[in-house]
Amino acid sequence: MTITTGTGRRNLKSTTIHMMALDGIVNVNSLFTLGLFLGLAVNPMDPSYTLVDSSDKSCMTSSSVAESMVAFHVYSFSSFLFSSLIAFGLKQAIRTVKDGDTRVEVSDGTIAHVNLRVLRVGILASAAGSVSGCLFLTLALVDLVQIKLGKLGCVDWYGLVAVGPLVVLVPSALVIYICIVLHAFTR
């Protein structure tokens, strides 16, 4: 990443906006990661954990659903970690300016001129990591609902109420998020 120093009101606002966007990505990823670890704290194979009637074995989920739930949690965590590490790296590149052999921290009087193409690609990669993390987390939650309430083919009203908003609202929010990121990417 090419970084030089300089001053200018327009560039300072642009750099501040990029830093705020990266902070937002990191904060949201941190919240989702906390939720991931809470989801992994439960033992889905505990017989007292499920709400499915034990006499109806056809609606009970197999161990493969629990295995896929854990796998989706791991995929989601790695996606959020990927996204956060890229965002942290971009923030560090913006904050630190190389000037010969010395390092100068960005302050009120000095801003970093960052190669905007590299910054945009980095923000896009970080956003893609967040989106894939959300998708994997949604799949893990669907598996959790199946473990708690029974297979999706057997679920009653409570299962549909649990899964319905999850599979409608999360993808809708992700589509809006992707559109906003792509709009910002083209500016």
UniProtKB/TrEMBL annotation:
* Residues passing through the membrane, by range: 21-42, 70-90, 121-145, 157-185
- Source domain of life: Eukaryota
Which UniProt keyword terms apply here?
A: Membrane, Transmembrane, Transmembrane helix
Q: Does the keyword Secreted apply?
A: no
Record keyword DNA damage present: no
Q: What is this protein's record name?
A: Maternal effect embryo arrest 60
Q: Which organism does this record belong to?
A: Tagetes erecta (African marigold)
